[in-house]
Design a protein that fits this description.
- With 178 residues, the protein is of the alpha+beta class.
- The protein contains three helices and nine strands.
- The strands form two sheets. The protein has a seven-stranded mixed β-sheet.
- Helix 2 runs antiparallel to helix 3 (128-150).
Length: 178
C-alpha cells in the first residue's frame, strides 16, 4: 500500500479482516521500519497530535473505523511526511464455501461480531483501553448496519439492532505507566 505525504487515513482492501503488523520502506528511511499499533485513545492520552498538522515518519498506526462498505480504515501518527510503501501483514476474510447448507453473513456482520467478541475478551482481561476502543468500533459498526440494512425500512417496524453491552468506565492507569 502506498502511503502518501500528508495523508493520515487509508481504507484497506475489502478482503482484509484484521491488521497484524505494518512495515514501512522507502521515503526517508534507509531500512525497513515496523510501525507499532496503538489504540487511538492511548495516543491521545499520551499527548500525540492526531491532526494532519504533525508530519514525520510514522511511529504508530491505529484503527479509525470502517467505511460504508464495511472496509477497515487505519491512520498513521504522525502523518506521513514522504511517500512510503507500507507492507501490511493481515488476516483475510474467510472464503465462503460454494456448496453448503451454511448461510454466509455479509462481511459487515462478521466484522461487527468480531469486534463485540474482542470487546468482551479485552474487558474480561482487564485491558480497559483496548476494551473501550473495541466497544466504540462495535457501536460504530452497529450504527452502520442499522443505516445500511434497516435504513430502507425505516418507515416500517422501526426494528433496530441493539446490544446489552454497557459502556465501561476508564480504569485508573497501572502503576507501570501502561
Amino acid at each position: 500500500m502506498a502511503c502518501v505525504a500528508s495523508t493520515r487515513e487509508y481504507t484497506l482492501d475489502a478482503s482484509v479482516s484484521e491488521v497484524l503488523a505494518v512495515v514501512l520502506t522507502g521515503g526517508s528511511l534507509s531500512s525497513p521500519k515496523e510501525v507499532s499499533f496503538a489504540p487511538r485513545e492511548r495516543l491521545i492520552a499520551r499527548g500525540k497530535d492526531l491532526s494532519t498538522s504533525t508530519t514525520g515518519t510514522p511511529d504508530y498506526w491505529y484503527y479509525t473505523g470502517v467505511d460504508s462498505s464495511g472496509n477497515l480504515k487505519i491512520a498513521f501518527q504522525p502523518v506521513p511526511d514522504d511517500t512510503y510503501t507500507a507492507t501490511l501483514q493481515v488476516l483475510d476474510q474467510p472464503s465462503t464455501p460454494g456448496d453448503s447448507d451454511e448461510i454466509a453473513l455479509p462481511r459487515e456482520f462478521e466484522r461487527v461480531l468480531k469486534e463485540g467478541i474482542r470487546f468482551r475478551a479485552y474487558r474480561n482481561e482487564g485491558q480497559i483501553d483496548l476494551a473501550t476502543l473495541s466497544y466504540q468500533i462495535f457501536q460504530s459498526g452497529l450504527q452502520l448496519l442499522n443505516a445500511r440494512f434497516l435504513g430502507p425500512f425505516a418507515g416500517g417496524s422501526g426494528l433496530k439492532v441493539k446490544t446489552r453491552m454497557k459502556q465501561i468506565d476508564q480504569a485508573p492507569a497501572a502503576a507501570d505507566g501502561t
